[in-house]
Amino acid sequence: MGWYDFFIIRAGIGGQINALESGVSGGWGGSRTTRQFVEKFPADLTGIVSEFNPGKTYPKVYIPGSYQSTPFNGADSKNALTSSKSNKVYEGYRYFTQDNAEFVILRNPSSTLGGKLGDNGADGTLETGGANIKAGPKGLYYIKVDLNNNTYVLERQTWGVVGSATPGGWDTDTELTWNAELGYLTAKVELKTGDIKFRANKDWAVNLGDTGADGLLEAGGNDIKITKSGGYEIRLDLDSLTILMS
User: What fold, for 60-156?
Assistant: First the structure.
């Protein structure tokens, strides 16, 4: 299926299964249900659930730093930026909960930070064994590392959803906020039928759409179609460029 998956469940109840405990009022015979059955499902106003697309596996670099629960844990192989084009340009996002977070770049996981890359001059150029890279105020940061020329970009960003389906239309963003427990940007919003896109810093210079209608987002991708109005919870994973809407 595409981005949205729709499920209609029908089953016969028999054998050793207790129909009432399973939330069905008896053997199958039409559209029967009970409160117990309904309560097994989330209170979803739209009837639409879009799951995360698992995405693909890409080359990585690693970014241990002061923001980790174990600071500068270079052995954490999940703490990575990815190269979606396998061209030695690695990108990703990190939310720093404190001001002035620091980190370094590793080509491979290393508990001793062997071969680390840092920035001696705080000028965006990487040097082997260089000083820790420092962020500014706490928040969500876009990180890009280019190992073709040993440079990096570190940019603080805010994200929102806009479009004809949103309360603010194409001009006013509905803000996405960081959910530390989930590790995603999230928003609860009333949407109507129409289109949406995601953008950074209330500007179109950086925006995400879905060209294949497959839940995988692309920079400058196509508008995302909303075919049913209602209350939605949006979760945006900027590392894998995937979304979940329910």
Answer: Immunoglobulin-like (2.60.40)
